[in-house]
User: Fold these one by one.
Assistant:
Number 1:
Amino acid sequence: MLKFTLENCIACNKKDWFKLFTINNWDIIQCNICGYARLNEFPEINTRQDFYSKSSIDNRALIKKRGPAKKLAAVVRHYLRKISGRDKGTYFRGRLDFYLSKGDKVLDIGCGNGSVLSEIRTKYDCVGVEVSRHMAMHVEKELNIKTFCGNFQEVDFGDIKFDAVMMVSLLEHLPDPFESLKKCYELLNKDGVILLKTVNHQGVNRRLFGDQWTGYRPPDHMVYFGKNNLEKMMENIGYRNIIKSGGLFNDSFYCEAIK
Ligand SMILES: [Zn+2]
């Protein structure tokens, strides 16, 4: 029995949903007006925590099992990345250097094993947030970077404000993207910058590969933005000078904006 959401779209505020696909028994619905897509129902928090725990690694491997279309997409992606010569580290380092001065305060939400933070920690005053206790401890102990462990929405930062907030491939994992980006806005100093990378639901690859598109990973990926509807939602929060970038055939895109 399909229960379409009764909520308004968080990007365009209209209520006009249709079912796009059912993937691994998860219904994905899309806004008819702006193209924002999401799971019809989000998984329980307990299920999500299981998903990120070590015991579910086998499940993840199963979910990621690739069909022929996905294998082809992976090969194409590999070569396009080689041609463009740009990886996520290059983008985030470059844009931070553009906006910030030495010693400015940077927050990386969903910092994982600290791969991006480790490259910038000597230049900026870095703080991480990571839901996995194992990885949070690694970043704090091995990289010596202050790291909050837990869900971003539940972390109390006290009076700390930041000059830059990063979300590297995190937004698609969040059931509350509007509230999360609003919290980022509140955590930023005036003229602070947000930098993020998320899957591109309005990109060529998604249109080309349909339900075989590599970005569809329910229930791990819960929400699916494109460049235009993400910009609209960020404008509604108050962000300005929004810049979206990312190659035509990339599965993800970058977005940066000022408070
Ligand atoms: Zn919409």
Number 2:
Amino acid sequence: MKLEKYRVEDHNESLLKEHHRRLEFLKAGLSDTESILSKLIDFKVAIPSWALGTGGTRFGRFSGGGEPRSLEEKIEDVGLLHALNRSSGAISLHIPWDIPKQASSIKALAAQHGLRFDAMNSNTFQDQPGQAHSYKFGSLQHVRKEVRQQAIDHNIEVIRHGIELGSESLTVWLSDGSCFPGQLNFRKAFQNTLEGLSEIYQALPENWKLFVEYKAFEPNFYSTTVGDWGQSLLYASKLGPKAYTLVDLGHHLPNANIEQIVALLLMEGKLGGFHFNDSKYGDDDLTVGSIKPYQLFLIFNELVEGMDARGMEHATDLGWMIDASHNVKDPLEDLLQSVEAIMISYAQALLVDRKKLQTAQQENDVVAAQEVLQNTFRMDVRALVAEARLRAGGALDPLSFYRKEKIREQLIKQRGSATVATGL
Ligand SMILES: [Mn+2]
């Protein structure tokens, strides 16, 4: 469904006075808002195709209705998000859930919505109908060569789809590992996986990146073959300059210091991309910023500091993606909240007084260092994020617009209430 532009303009008109009041108040305390606004306008987060339907758990799935029935409808949903917040200008596809039948028309449809194709995602964690070999005991790590070869071939096929769509990266997340001690020879599993990844790496076009995503546990509960950032970095370093580590916020053991991991990966030039979500216990895939907003801010603080230290472009030099999907919210509302949380943390990180922080660190003034960070974190920057959105042609308050316009109701009318999007 396409948004009528004048509806967004009417919405903005009705909120403009209050918006200006908040913005002026915020700007009064800041020195340079224009450069921050232009960075916010440039920043785009990719939406994963599997987050547009209600996420399932292993116990049940409760569809909210109006879910996209095809890749075309998934693109329309991301287009809708992007029209509202102007920060969701990319979609990340998952093969085989989203195999484009005709790449050129899919590409054209995405372009109509102002979207590009972000990282492609392969899937060797499920068996597909008609598949010759099972991934029950792993894919690239598997003890049998024919299973490994099948997984390699699949990844190369995903690259081919990606080339047709104009994507420039492949994310490999493996569920490979073991559930019980003795099940696996760790060294052989690593070597098999490295060999497989090397073959996939060889198939990458010149301008492509390979993201090696790690995860501490689940679905395997004793060992994971790409289990943490150390293992991922080991693979990425051995593979070569086009291979990077991908950090998914939900893929760590409890209380891991993710901001420190990010800082060191950036320092080594090996941080490639991000999967944003939030969690309380494990890989909960909850809305970004819903549980630990301070951690999200601290991560962005390291990202901005580390990227600036290397002279990187914030908007384009890393892959920014959401990877979240759960059971209880309207997925589109959930994604609007997630993107907003990301933009707020990014804006705050841009506002951190780096000089003051550096001086405090240099003088071992722990109290002052904490003050610098927490003063910024407690600043309400929502008017700045809204202003960036307004200037880019979006809605001042995307969520209230979505509700007032009854967009979900319209989608249900169009697509039916029993639709189930492909995904988890
Ligand atoms: Mn992920």
